[in-house]
Amino acid sequence: MANNVKLTALTRTESGRNAVKRVRSRGAVPAVIYGSRQTSANLEVNRRDLEVLLSRAVGENILVDLEIKDGESSKNQLSLIQEVQHHAVRREILHVDFQAVSMSEEITAEIALEHTGEADGVKNHGGLLEQNIRSMEIRCLPKNLPELIKIDVSHLKVGEAIHIRDIALPEGVTSTADPDLTVIIIAEPKVSAAETKPAAAGKEAKK
Fold first, then answer.
1. What per-residue confidence (pLDDT) applies to 39?
2. DSSP code, position 13
3. In CATH, 108-187 is 2.170.120.20
4. In the chain, where are the structural domains located?
């Protein structure tokens, strides 16, 4: 399941380009939090704390126990990091979106799919593993949110495939994706041009 990590955020009353520059100049990252029962609010989080949090994450879905400080008062809000924007060249974090969630309400999330093991069709028969889908949409309570979903492919022979419906999901997790979609298939080995040349050359020599 996804780890529930802690992060502190400060409320931010200023908005606009100049305000954002001031936030970044003091080592913070502009942020926003929103949700069905949460009034949208501008925040800022410490850049270093956020970088450490993201570097330790296994998947893209990170549950955060967000402590939001507003002057002398503070409150905690369970949140899901929805989007992290990076600079196209420098790759520094420019902005982060938090979605407020409730432990008693299901959420929808896109979870990465990772295959494990070496397929029999690849290991023993020269087949090629092709992964057509890298993530799938699921629904679950926040406490059941997986960091990623692993798929064992060791039993697959050439020509065999794994579909969405074949994936064993953790307890409390359901898929919202089309069950007939092909996630992984073991394709026939490809014959290269180099392998066909000797045979062709042999035929020419007999003429």
1. 81
2. -
3. yes
4. 4-101, 108-187
